[in-house]
Specification:
mainly alpha; 168 residues; 4 strands; two-stranded antiparallel sheet
Amino acid sequence: MIEPLQRQFDLAWALTDLHLSALSDDDFLWEPTDLVWTMRMDDTGRWCPDWAETEPEPIPVPTIGWISWHIVFWWSSALDAVTGRPLRPPAETAWPGPADAVPAIRALHAQWRAVLARLSPPDLDAPCAFPWGSAAERTVADTVLWLNIELAKNGSEIGLLRMMRATA
């Protein structure tokens, strides 16, 4: 099952990287509507995401910057989970800003690819709580499958926002 998971991941990555490669720094903070979640710089110069523990209604439209921070957050957390490190809270996940977001995501891609290359079939059955919060019924395989889908979803969101901005 590891090889099909890797192939699925490679496909999700190729589709995502297609959009990442086309981004300009100005794309990251473009707001497609009045109700958005974005990245904001605090008084110390640190980028902070708009965030709520419970999604508001209506759900704000994320900017590309917010989506890229979200990718850094969940991918870092997935790496933590499958390698046995403690999970970090969203507020402690740094976003490097528009100029360095794509390199940060590509670094996570390389780390995840290395993790996938080291997995053996028994590893896939090991308990893994991320992103569900409880490992009682979830495994590393569940996390790998979820990551592939989440990456494809976030890549398509970035692509749609990029195309919307280009035609606005």
